[in-house]
Amino acid sequence: QVQLVESGGGLVQAGGSLRLSCAASGSIFSIIAMDWYRQAPGKQRELVAGITKGSRTNYADSLKGRFTISGDLAKNAVYLQMNSLKPEDTAVYYCHARDQLTRHFWGQGTQVTVSS
Q1: Which of 7, 1, 27 is nearest to 77 (CA)?
Q2: Any alpha helices (H) in 1-108, and if so which ranges?
Q3: How far apart are CA 96 and CA 90, in angstroms?
Q4: pLDDT confidence of residue 10
Q5: CA distance 4 to 26
Q6: Average of pLDDT values for 99-109?
Q7: Dihedral sign, CA of 46, 81, 110, 71?
Q8: Confidence band (pLDDT; 50, 70, 90) for 26?
Q9: Coil vs helix vs strand at 115
Q10: How far is it, in rounded angstroms, from Cα 89 to Cα 40?
Q11: If 0-12 CB within 10 Å is exposed, 13-18 middle and 19+ buried, where does residue 85 land?
Protein backbone atom coordinates (compact mmCIF):
# COMPACT_ATOMS: atom_id res chain seq x y z
CA GLN A 1 0.00 0.00 0.00
CA VAL A 2 1.32 3.42 -1.01
CA GLN A 3 0.00 6.66 0.35
CA LEU A 4 0.54 10.17 -0.92
CA VAL A 5 -0.37 12.89 1.54
CA GLU A 6 -0.68 16.50 0.43
CA SER A 7 -0.64 19.51 2.71
CA GLY A 8 -0.40 23.26 2.48
CA GLY A 9 -3.64 24.15 0.73
CA GLY A 10 -5.97 26.81 1.99
CA LEU A 11 -7.57 30.16 1.33
CA VAL A 12 -5.43 33.02 0.09
CA GLN A 13 -6.08 36.40 -1.47
CA ALA A 14 -5.19 37.08 -5.06
CA GLY A 15 -1.53 37.93 -5.35
CA GLY A 16 -0.61 35.76 -2.40
CA SER A 17 1.47 32.62 -2.16
CA LEU A 18 1.09 29.07 -0.96
CA ARG A 19 3.46 26.13 -0.73
CA LEU A 20 2.10 22.65 -1.18
CA SER A 21 3.88 19.58 0.10
CA CYS A 22 3.45 15.93 -0.76
CA ALA A 23 5.00 12.99 1.02
CA ALA A 24 4.83 9.40 -0.14
CA SER A 25 5.01 6.43 2.17
CA GLY A 26 4.40 2.72 2.07
CA SER A 27 5.58 -0.02 -0.25
CA ILE A 28 7.39 2.19 -2.67
CA PHE A 29 9.76 0.43 -4.99
CA SER A 30 11.46 3.47 -6.44
CA ILE A 31 9.73 6.66 -7.38
CA ILE A 32 11.03 8.04 -10.66
CA ALA A 33 8.71 11.02 -11.08
CA MET A 34 6.31 13.10 -9.07
CA ASP A 35 3.83 15.63 -10.36
CA TRP A 36 1.19 18.08 -9.30
CA TYR A 37 -2.16 18.13 -11.05
CA ARG A 38 -5.16 20.29 -10.37
CA GLN A 39 -8.85 20.07 -11.06
CA ALA A 40 -11.17 23.04 -10.94
CA PRO A 41 -14.95 22.60 -10.65
CA GLY A 42 -16.43 21.50 -13.95
CA LYS A 43 -13.02 21.10 -15.58
CA GLN A 44 -10.73 18.22 -16.37
CA ARG A 45 -7.74 17.44 -14.25
CA GLU A 46 -4.65 19.10 -15.70
CA LEU A 47 -0.93 18.81 -15.17
CA VAL A 48 0.57 21.68 -13.24
CA ALA A 49 4.21 20.63 -12.95
CA GLY A 50 6.39 17.57 -12.71
CA ILE A 51 9.85 16.56 -11.58
CA THR A 52 11.87 13.46 -12.32
CA LYS A 53 14.41 11.56 -10.31
CA GLY A 54 17.05 13.32 -12.37
CA SER A 55 15.58 16.68 -11.28
CA ARG A 56 14.17 17.51 -14.68
CA THR A 57 11.14 19.71 -14.35
CA ASN A 58 8.26 20.55 -16.63
CA TYR A 59 5.41 22.99 -16.28
CA ALA A 60 2.12 23.84 -17.83
CA ASP A 61 2.96 26.72 -20.15
CA SER A 62 0.41 29.01 -18.55
CA LEU A 63 1.98 28.59 -15.11
CA LYS A 64 5.64 29.06 -15.90
CA GLY A 65 7.15 31.85 -13.87
CA ARG A 66 4.56 31.72 -11.09
CA PHE A 67 4.79 28.11 -9.92
CA THR A 68 7.94 26.24 -8.98
CA ILE A 69 8.20 22.53 -8.34
CA SER A 70 10.96 21.06 -6.24
CA GLY A 71 11.52 17.79 -4.53
CA ASP A 72 13.69 15.09 -3.13
CA LEU A 73 12.54 11.91 -4.78
CA ALA A 74 15.01 9.89 -2.78
CA LYS A 75 12.93 10.94 0.21
CA ASN A 76 9.68 10.60 -1.74
CA ALA A 77 8.76 14.24 -1.28
CA VAL A 78 7.73 16.98 -3.68
CA TYR A 79 6.75 20.61 -3.19
CA LEU A 80 4.95 23.25 -5.20
CA GLN A 81 5.60 26.91 -4.54
CA MET A 82 2.78 29.00 -5.95
CA ASN A 83 3.23 32.76 -6.22
CA SER A 84 1.08 35.58 -7.56
CA LEU A 85 -1.97 33.42 -7.19
CA LYS A 86 -5.06 34.24 -9.19
CA PRO A 87 -8.70 33.30 -8.64
CA GLU A 88 -8.46 30.98 -11.63
CA ASP A 89 -5.86 28.94 -9.73
CA THR A 90 -8.65 27.82 -7.43
CA ALA A 91 -8.80 24.04 -7.64
CA VAL A 92 -8.11 20.82 -5.84
CA TYR A 93 -4.43 20.08 -6.20
CA TYR A 94 -3.37 16.45 -6.42
CA CYS A 95 -0.01 14.84 -5.96
CA HIS A 96 0.89 12.02 -8.34
CA ALA A 97 3.81 9.63 -8.33
CA ARG A 98 5.10 7.00 -10.71
CA ASP A 99 7.49 4.31 -9.63
CA GLN A 100 10.00 2.15 -11.43
CA LEU A 101 7.39 -0.57 -11.83
CA THR A 102 5.26 1.99 -13.73
CA ARG A 103 2.65 2.01 -11.00
CA HIS A 104 0.77 5.27 -10.52
CA PHE A 105 -0.28 6.69 -7.18
CA TRP A 106 -2.53 9.63 -6.32
CA GLY A 107 -3.07 11.65 -3.22
CA GLN A 108 -6.47 12.67 -1.91
CA GLY A 109 -5.99 16.27 -2.96
CA THR A 110 -5.75 19.57 -1.15
CA GLN A 111 -8.06 22.50 -1.79
CA VAL A 112 -6.58 25.81 -2.89
CA THR A 113 -8.97 28.74 -2.97
CA VAL A 114 -7.88 32.15 -4.21
CA SER A 115 -10.21 35.01 -3.43
CA SER A 116 -10.38 38.14 -5.55
Answers
A1: 7
A2: none
A3: 18
A4: 97
A5: 9
A6: 92
A7: positive
A8: confident
A9: strand
A10: 8
A11: buried
